[in-house]
UniProtKB/TrEMBL annotation:
InterPro entries in the record: FAD-bd (IPR002938), FAD/NAD-bd_sf (IPR036188), Kynurenine_monooxygenase (IPR027545)
This protein's pathway: Cofactor biosynthesis; NAD(+) biosynthesis; quinolinate from L-kynurenine: step 1/3
Entry protein name: Kynurenine 3-monooxygenase
Catalytic reaction equation(s): L-kynurenine + NADPH + O2 + H(+) = 3-hydroxy-L-kynurenine + NADP(+) + H2O
Cofactors named for this entry: FAD
Taxonomic superkingdom: Bacteria
Swiss-Prot/TrEMBL GO biological process terms: anthranilate metabolic process; kynurenine metabolic process; L-tryptophan catabolic process; NAD+ biosynthetic process; quinolinate biosynthetic process
Family: Belongs to the aromatic-ring hydroxylase family. KMO subfamily.
HAMAP family found in the cross-reference section: Kynurenine_monooxygenase
Domain FAD-binding, chain residue ranges per copy: 7-348
EC number, UniProt record: 1.14.13.9
Length: 473
């Protein structure tokens, strides 16, 4: 590819700033336009998730651009889920039976700022803030912008335009409204929305509850989660229906009702949140949705990446990781011998879309799992068994969660197919009595024998799935 071409990136969020950095490192001329002010100078966190779970696929991308050593100090390891029941009892459920497998809590602003610093340090990367893209003329490689400071509109051409402008992408809207080619687009909202709250640091600056876990108060039809921040606080997120159930976002309208709701369902959390009412009435309630679309590109002129191409609900903690992985996968193709952007974009979408569709579906599954199943006895038995497999036979077994979260060397689709087959195998075998309970987790011979049975049943299910799929075609 010709390095003298200018690549225009719309959106300097997590994906856009990483992409700018990588393309800049490769020697392309990169020009980035971001709607918001520079987050390194102005606090713009309101309304967006403050911290995120960052894991192996994201780490792989940071290693690609050589900055993982700078990201690491921003991370708080979370070794498992701390489950809080309605009585206030807690149980730590590790994410994996392997010690080196954990996820990290990271501040969106800190990570984005680091990526912007690194990208901007390159002479061939320019970033313009307060520039909103209003539409893209994808046939003529030209984007239209509104510059807030001057209240002025202008347009800018580039050889290649990449939209990393998030779930409400202006480039995607231009594809849709342009009606110049067959563009498939779906946006599915959950009936639940989310609101961010907080647990402030203790008076001595420490953490008010266990630091190294993702806390979950799962209550079947709604849930609360909390992730730690470096300053000793936790960012707490309430996921709740807009209109169903005794308590919902539409009817939590008075301080009395909010307090009654929290004291009934989240009593131990409420004790840590004297600031609840301030947060609740100050912070917005936002919707949660899945966006799927195709194609992601128009000829060799424009391309969608990150949430702009595939926004997902946050329950697998993978939206950012998947957007970073987009950049890793895109980067790999730049090493191949493509002579034009159109073939590269086509190859990218062909290879990648099956994986982003898979993580979108897995994220919806996990919504139900986190709300309810984590409290369910058979689910816990399955989890205990998988943990024992992972601990005793680390090379032979990885749970679905581990395949998705900790194995950056396989795609999401492969992780989904194998993970779902394993889940089905174990749950069926537990339900049918093919795996004896109580589980003999300390007996290695029993474990090895059971693992072999699970593996055989998993292969059987995968084979059945393959046959069913071939018959459909
Ligand atoms: P964004 O981060 O949305 O960035 C888009 C950028 O484009 C923004 O800077 C925006 O200002 C800019 N922009 C938008 N429109 C325009 C325009 N017209 N012109 C110019 N600029 C524009 N992911 C995880 O991996 N782990 C998690 O734990 C996790 N938790 C989440 C929790 C919640 C509640 C939510 C909502 C999401 C969560 N995610 C998580 C998902 C993650 O936030 C996204 O997948 C990620 O931010 C996608 O990055 P992006 O750069 O594609 O989009």
């Amino acid at each position: 590819m010709n390095k003298n071409q200018t690549i225009q990136i719309i959106g300097a969020g997590l994906c856009g700033s990483l992409l700018a950095l990588r393309l800049g490192q490769r020697g392309f001329k990169v020009e980035v336009f971001e709607k918001r002010p520079d987050l390194r100078k102005v606090d713009i966190s309101a309304g967006r998730s403050i911290n995120l779970a960052f894991s192996n696929r994201g780490i792989k991308a940071m290693n690609m651009v050589g900055i993982q050593h700078k990201v690491e100090p921003l991370c708080i390891p979370m070794h498992g889920r701390m489950l809080h029941d309605i009585e206030g009892n807690t149980l730590l459920s590790p994410y994996s039976g392997k010690e080196n497998e954990y996820i990290n809590s990271i501040s969106r602003t800190d990570l984005n700022a680091l990526l912007l610093n690194e990208a901007e340090a390159l002479n061939n990367v320019t970033i313009h803030f307060n520039h909103k893209c209003t539409s893209v003329d994808f046939e003529n490689n030209r984007s239209h912008f509104y510059k807030y400071e001057d209240k002025a509109e202008f347009s800018k051409p580039a050889e290649v335009i990449i939209g990393t402008d998030g779930a409400g992408s202006a480039l995607r809207k231009s594809y849709y409204l342009g009606k110049k080619f067959l563009f498939s687009f779906s946006q599915d909202y959950l009936t639940h929305g989310y609101k961010e709250l907080s647990i402030l640091p203790a008076e001595n600056g420490g953490f008010k509850t266990f630091k190294n876990a993702l806390h979950i108060w799962g209550r079947d039809s709604f849930m609360l989660i909390a992730l730690p921040n470096l300053d000793g606080s936790f960012t707490v997120t309430l996921f709740l229906s807009y209109e169903d159930g005794e308590y919902n976002f539409n009817n939590l309208t008075t301080p009395e009702r909010v307090t009654a709701f929290f004291s009934t369902y989240f009593k131990d959390a409420l004790e840590l949140m004297p600031n609840l009412l301030d947060d609740f009435f100050k912070n917005p309630t936002s919707p949660l949705g899945t966006v799927k679309c195709s194609p992601w590109h128009y000829k060799g002129n424009t391309l969608l990446l990150g949430d702009a191409a595939h926004a997902i609900v946050p329950f697998y903690g993978q939206g950012m990781n998947a957007s970073f992985e987009d950049v890793t996968e895109f980067d790999k193709l730049l090493d191949e011998n493509f002579t034009d952007w159109e073939s590269l974009f086509k190859a990218f979408e062909t290879g990648r879309k099956k994986d982003t569709d898979a993580i979108a579906d897995l994220a919806i599954d996990n919504f139900h799992e986190m709300k309810g199943h984590v409290n369910n006895a058979i689910f816990r038995e399955k989890r205990n068994l998988e943990m024992a497999f992972e601990k005793n036979f680390p090379k032979s077994y990885a749970s679905k969660y581990a395949l998705v979260t900790f194995n950056e060397n396989i795609g999401y689709r492969e992780a989904m197919l194998r993970g779902r087959a394993q889940d089905k195998a174990i749950l069926n075998m537990l339900a049918d009595g093919d795996i004896e309970t109580p589980l003999k987790l300390d007996n290695k011979t029993w474990l090895e024998h059971t693992l072999k049975q699970v593996q055989a049943e998993t292969e059987h299910i995968l084979e059945e799935d393959r046959i069913a799929k071939n018959m459909q075609h």
